[in-house]
Design a protein that fits this description.
This protein is α/β, with parallel strands linked by helices. It contains nine helices and eight strands. Helices cover 36% and strands 19% of the residues. It binds D-xylitol-5-phosphate and zinc ion (ZN). Zinc ion (ZN) binds next to β2.
């Protein structure tokens, strides 16, 4: 059994101009994005430091787009409630960052947010096979987390195909695969053919005008969907 999830484009605000964040959000809305991807980094789990729940709280009243909070932080369980209260629609945590994954995923669910688990590029897929049933989506990193503008790691394709097959075999076809890192016009079609439906893009979207780069990325991604039919 397989199903085609509609393509959703999630601009990563990491590459936006933080001095003009509201304008950047408007450009993403006009470009037709469904999701805003917010990268939360603590300088500990990853080498970089970015933003916290305060920024989610500031964005919440100005947009109805899905706020997708990607927590690249050690012990994310300590901050789940704060992000949910700030208005995070989706919260994802790294399997490498939390000791009691089931408890952390259950906490996100109890707080009313959609639940995601994230894997670094070479973390074995099997490490989340028992966790996916508690999730709404799985985020497969296609770069090492920490920075925008890095090169896409091609083993993503094999990993996404294997995860998609596992989900379909286990009647978990409703669970979506999100891809994050180095996504662009040149690989979007193949990414979708491998089984992903939520495409995060930072530098690819904000390098140009999001009103144009987002529809272009969507067109490229949807070509992969047509071929999958
Ligand atoms: C990296 C972040 C990504 C980043 C992607 O740690 O998780 O969301 O913004 O940036 P690009 O699309 O430029 O690779
Ligand atoms: Zn991210």
């Amino acid at each position: 059994m397989s199903m085609n999830h509609p393509i959703r484009i999630a601009p990563s605000l990491l590459s936006a101009n933080f001095a003009r964040l509201e304008e950047e959000v408007r450009c993403c809305e006009h470009g037709g994005a469904e999701i805003l991807h917010i990268d939360v980094m603590d300088g500990h789990f990853v080498p970089n430091i970015t933003v916290g729940a305060l920024v989610v709280e500031a964005l919440r009243p100005i947009t109805t787009l899905v706020l997708d909070c990607h927590l690249m932080i050690t012990e994310p369980e300590r901050y789940i409630e704060a992000f949910a209260e700030a208005g995070a629609d989706w919260i994802s945590v790294h399997v490498e960052a939390t000791r009691h994954l089931h408890r952390t995923l259950s906490l996100i669910r109890a707080c009313g947010s959609r639940v995601g688990v994230v894997l670094n590029p070479v973390t074995p897929l099997v490490s989340v096979f028992d966790a996916v049933e508690y999730c709404d989506f799985v985020l497969l990193m296609s770069v090492n987390p920490g920075f925008g503008g890095q090169a896409f790691i091609p083993s993503f394709f094999r990993r996404a195909r294997e995860l998609r097959a596992f989900l379909n075999r286990n009647r978990l076809e409703h669970i979506e695969i999100e891809v994050d890192g180095g996504v662009g016009l040149e690989n979007a079609e193949e990414i979708v053919r491998a089984g992903a439906s939520i495409l995060v893009s930072g530098s690819g979207v904000f390098r140009g005008n999001p009103r144009e780069t987002i529809p272009a990325l969507r067109r490229a991604a949807e070509r992969g969907l047509t071929l999958a039919l």
